[in-house]
Amino acid sequence: MDQASLLAAIKRCTRVRELRAIHAHMVRANLTQETFLTSKLIESSAVTLPGHVSYAHRIFSSILHPNPFMWNTIIRGYSISDSPITAITFYRDMSLCGISPNSYTFGFALKACCKLLRLFEGQELHSQIVKVGLDFETQVLNGLIKLYTSCGCMDYARDVFDEMPERDSASWSTMVSGYAQNGQAVEALELFREIQAEDVRSDVFTLASVAGVCGEFGALELGKWVHSYVGKKGIKIDLVLGTALVGMYSKCGSLDNALKVFEGIPERDVTAWSTMIAGYAVHGQGEKALQLFDAMKGSKPMPNSITFTSVLSACSHSGLVEKGHQIFNTMWTEYKITPQIEHYGCMVDLFCRAGMVDHAHKFIQTMPIEPNVVLWRTLLGACKAHGYKDLADHISRKILKLDPTSPENYVLVSNVYASLGRWSSVSQVRSLMKDKTPKKQHGWSFIEINFMVHKFTIGDESHPEREKIYGMLQQMATKLKQVGHVASTVDVLHDIDEEEKQYALGLHSERLAIAYGLLHTPDGLPIRIVKNLRVCRDCHEVIKLISEVYNREIIVRDRVRFHHFRERVCSCNDYW
Q1: CA–CA separation, 277 and 301 (whole Å)
Q2: In which element (H, E) is residue 258 found?
Q3: pTM to 2 decimal places
Q4: In terms of DSSP H, where are the helices of 283-320?
Q5: Burial of 526 by CB count in 10 Å (0-12 exposed, 13-18 middle, 19+ buried)?
Q6: Maximum Cα–Cα distance for the chain, whole Å?
Q7: Which residues in 444-454 are b (16+ Cβ under 10 Å) and which e?
Q8: In what helix (H) or strand (E) does residue 564 lie, and over which residues does it extend?
Q9: Distance of CA 42 to the CA centre of its chain
Q10: What is the number of other CB atoms lying within 10 angstroms of the CB of residue 41?
């Protein structure tokens, strides 16, 4: 068999057994030192046939003088294997052998560093890239941006991005995705606006990242614009983008649009199904979530652990105790999925929301795994809501013992004692909180107006329209008094007089956001708010009244669920 025939045979190989036969023939024919043939043999075993890089390694080791292509191929093979650290080792060996790395070498080595999150080794590569003068190569710089974003070093990534002599769509995409994945949503949206200004075509990964950011902010109009952009540019909505859009619409409170996108995804995987079910769950539409779950069971993908978390959460928010218990039991009996702590947490929440406090307590005590502090916090909240004072006192002490460093625990325990009027105990807990915990997380609320996201904190005076906002707050307060509202100050943790408590409640971040929404949205249109903490009792009552007084639908997504306020009624039925 001549070399041309051997090369053609290597290209046709689909199994490693065929490759071994060709290799054996080359050994017998004394062709193993033929550079081109052996290079293709290494490439086929290291890259073309995944999972066989160790065989490529053995071939490589038999070569007396491997050329740069062979070095790059073996580094590439290991970078995409289960042993990316070996790619870094080969890169170092290559340098020791006096072979100069090129842009391909750095690209593959950087990919290995990304998989391993090896920042130090990646920075070494960065230094070498500058040293050999390849810091103008777009593909190499894209690899550096990917490394830094993967390691959470967004400032380093931005420095590389800003200094690039030429950027391609991958450069922009990696930066936007990096901001989104590292929780820097504002920066992600700002950069996406720059993409539009530069008229750079966005790929599906960029658009999926931006859709995810819109979901986190509750920025429905911007999310709709992203969706329309996809249509105008003729971009196919694949599984990744489709699932991202379903999640975005769900998190923005637009389940109808989420369902339309979901139904348009041709091949839905378990993630797509679970995302749509989770959307129904967080909106308290348990029956629809269960219907979709039944449809999923009749389709190709099997439910996984995340699916069951969504379904059990849906049962919890809709009070479907018997159904939730039944589904929980089928996790192991039908699907052989071992329930994890999050599933037990859903069950505790299910019992607590139904007022079955004793049942929830017994469930926690008999769990086969150790309950975490989240479960005890859930039970404590139910004790407070349903008047289990002695049990609440016992659980409060347990929580502070289990996790004495979390501000959230002290706030919850303080709330319980405040509701009982035990102000001396509140003071003791607050004192412990100052001594033992980091600073408490502050509440904030987002509202999107004209494609811009505005953030408010409690008592915020930083907004340029402060005077108008506070004027609207005063108008809201006057109208609320006229319809007989009396502030519920039980959740204000300080032992101060009633007037001060009412003033503190009136400046909560969601009220500032709603005031801004009333100022800047036409009459009759919904106002959408995203809040990072659970809505307090008084704000919940106030928003119900505002929805009636101003004839508005107000949609609030807090840390727990969605609240749809219409005509003095909330979709959560006043239990959240």
Answers
A1: 14
A2: helix 255-264
A3: 0.80
A4: 286-297, 305-318
A5: middle
A6: 99
A7: bbbbbbeeebb
A8: strand 562-566
A9: 39
A10: 27
Strand 569-570 with 562-566, pairing: antiparallel
Q: Check the CA dihedral 272-277-280-283 and report its sign.
A: negative
Amino acid of residue 42: I
**How far apart, in whole angstroms, are the C-alpha atoms of residue 335 and residue 275?**
19
The confidence score (pLDDT) of residue 438 equals: 61
Taken as a whole, the chain contains a residue count of 576
* 514 neighbors 547 (Cβ within 8 angstroms): no
Confidence of residue 415 (pLDDT cuts 50, 70, 90): confident
Q: In whole angstroms, what is the distance from residue 255 CA to residue 253 CA?
A: 6
22: which 2 tokens? 């060709």
Give me the residues paired with residue 31 across strands.
Answer: none
Is residue 345 within 8 A of residue 374, CB to CB? The reply is yes
Tokens linked to 517? 């929404």
Looking at every residue in the chain, the average pLDDT score rounds to 90
pLDDT of residue 416: 83
Give the mean model confidence (pLDDT) for residues 210-216. 92
Q: Which amino acid makes up residue 123?
A: Q
C-alpha angle with apex 182: 408 to 218, nearest 5 degrees? Answer: 70
pLDDT at 5 over 90: no
- The winner for highest mean pLDDT among 33-37, 160-164, 317-321 is 160-164
Is the pLDDT assigned to residue 97 strictly greater than 80?
yes
Angle between helices 169-181 and 204-217 (to 10 degrees): 30
Q: Tokens at residue 284, please?
A: 């308290």
Task: Order the strands of the 554-557 sheet from edge to edge.
Answer: 452-457, 444-449, 527-531, 554-557, 562-566, 569-570
Half-sphere exposure of 297 (CA within 13 A, CB side): 13
Q: What is the Rg, in whole angstroms, of the alpha carbon atoms belonging to the chain? A: 29
- CA distance readout (Å), 41 to 55, 70, 89: 10, 10, 21
Query: Residue 491: which pLDDT band, with cuts at 50, 70 and 90?
Result: low
Q: In this structure, are residues 293 and 307 in contact, taking their beta carbons and an 8 Å threshold?
A: yes
Token pair 């490529």 is found at 56
Distance CA 345, CA 340 (A): 9
Report the distance separating Cα 385 and Cα 356, nearest Å. 11
What is the spatial distance between Cα 125 and Cα 111, in angstroms, rounded to a whole number?
11
For residues 432 and 428, give the distance between their C-alpha atoms in angstroms, rounded to a whole number: 6
Q: Are 400 and 432 in contact (CB under 8 A)?
A: yes
386-400 pLDDT, tens digit per residue, is: 888 889 889 998 998
- Residue 169 near residue 196 (C-beta atoms within 8 A): no
Q: Judge whether 154 and 170 are in contact, CB under 8 Å.
A: no
